[in-house]
Amino acid sequence: MLMKLDLSLQQNIKIMNSLLGAYCSLQDFFKTNEIFDSIISNGELNNETVSIMIKLNTYISLGHVQQFWNGIYEFGLLPDEDNYKQFVVAHCYYERYDDALRVVEGMKDYDLEVRGDLIETLYKWTKNDEKRLVLERWARENYKGIWNELEPRLKIEGEVKQDKNEVNESNVFVTKEFIHEGY
Fold first, then answer.
1. InterPro entries from the xrefs (predicted)?
2. Any idea where the domains of the chain sit in the sequence?
3. Which of 97, 112, 129, 171 is most buried by its number of CB atoms within 10 A?
């Protein structure tokens, strides 16, 4: 299906961000940038637009993410919590876990509160076990109340993932039995 987008029509930022997000998810860099340029020219840029563009730049390189991040102020915007969350994801995507943690710690400089969903995002995107332990200690020391709420759920989610991949002998036996019987 071919869709032509007439960018000269008056567009609503919600619609434009939806299109931007769709093309970003498809990793269609040309179309995403074309829509982004249209949003800028209409002067409708908002923090949702910024989060989508951080995500797009994450697919390219951490350098692109950093360059975009440094230019947010040129759009007359201050990063919000969701922008920070996407920025943290970008650092974790490139296994820069220490930098991601520093980003979270730096939020207080902009009067942004570190909330449970951000710590949860950081935890889930941290794939290195040693770094995860560092993160757990940090969260326990600095955000004890939030961590106490998150920890049981995060641990259970981790156990569930392991259980789904577990193969027990009764499953193997049943499978062999069905194969042997010709099922």
1. TPR-like_helical_dom_sf
2. 46-181
3. 97
